[in-house]
Design brief:
The chain is built from six helices and eight strands, in the order E-H-E-E-E-H-E-E-E-E-H-H-H-H. By secondary structure, the chain is an alpha/beta fold. The chain has a single domain, classed as Collagenase (Catalytic Domain). Helix 1 packs across helix 3. The longest helix has 19 residues.
Length: 196
C-alpha cells in the first residue's frame, strides 16, 4: 500500500526545536499539497528502553495516530530498532518517524550548526516519506533513498530523489515537483567525486 501526497502532518514528540519543525514544514509543503505542524505530544513512555537509554522506534511508530494524511513524528530522542545500534528514522505506510538526536552536529562533538541540522533533517524526512511511498534503498550515493549507515552517508547524499526513484514513483502514479528530483548529471558528478 502506497501513501498519497495530499496531506502531511508533522507531529512533534516531546520538546522539538521549532526552527527545525518550521523548516521541515516549509520544505515538505513543496512535496505535499498541505503540510502542517501539530501541537506537541509527550513522548510515550512504554517504548523507552532504560538498558539502552534509547526509544524503540517501531513501538513509537505503532502507537502514532494518523488523521488521513501522512504523519511524521519528529523527536529529539535517540531511537533504535531490534538488531540495530540506532536508527535515524523509519516508516510504515502512512506513518513516518525521524530523530534529530544523531543528526545534530553536537552529537559528534562538533559546533552546533542549525543549517546543517536542517539539511540533515530534510534528507531524513524525504528518505522516510520515500519508504512510505514504496521506495526501497537506492544504490545511487547521491539519492536521498541511499541507505545511511552513518552521518557521513547522510551528508554525502542529496535531499532529493534520483531519476530512477522519481521514475519508479511516476510509474506508481506519484508525480513529484521537478525540484524534488535530482538530474542525472548531478548523480554522475556525485559518483565521480566519491570515487576520487
Amino acid at each position: 500500500m502506497h501513501i498519497s501526497l495530499d496531506e502531511l502532518y508533522i507531529q512533534p514528540l516531546g520538546r522539538v526545536d521549532e526552527e527545525v519543525l518550521e523548516f521541515l514544514r516549509d520544505g515538505l509543503c513543496r512535496l505535499c499539497k498541505k503540510a502542517d505542524v501539530k501541537p506537541a505530544r509527550s513522548m510515550p513512555r512504554r517504548p523507552y528502553n532504560p538498558d539502552r537509554g534509547q526509544y524503540d522506534g517501531p513501538m513509537i511508530l505503532e502507537e502514532m495516530e494518523t488523521d488521513g494524511g501522512i504523519v511524521m513524528g519528529v523527536t529529539e530522542m535517540d531511537l533504535y530498532a531490534t538488531g540495530l545500534t540506532f536508527i535515524f528514522g523509519m516508516a510504515s505506510r502512512k506513518k513516518t518517524l525521524i530523530s534529530l538526536h544523531r543528526l545534530r552536529p553536537e552529537f559528534y562533538r562538533a559546533v552546533p550548526n542549525m543549517k546543517l541540522l536542517q539539511a540533515r533533517a530534510m534528507k531524513e524526512a524525504m528518505h522516510e516519506i520515500g519508504h512510505g511511498l514504496g521506495l526501497r534503498h537506492c544504490p545511487q550515493i547521491s539519492c536521498v533513498m541511499h541507505f545511511s549507515n552513518s552521518i557521513v552517508d547522510t551528508d554525502l547524499k542529496d535531499w532529493r530523489y534520483c531519476r530512477r526513484c522519481s521514475l519508479s514513483l511516476a510509474r506508481d502514479g506519484i508525480d513529484l515537483p521537478a525540484e524534488m528530483a535530482v538530474r542525472s548529471q548531478s548523480i554522475r558528478i556525485a559518483e565521480a567525486v566519491r570515487h576520487r
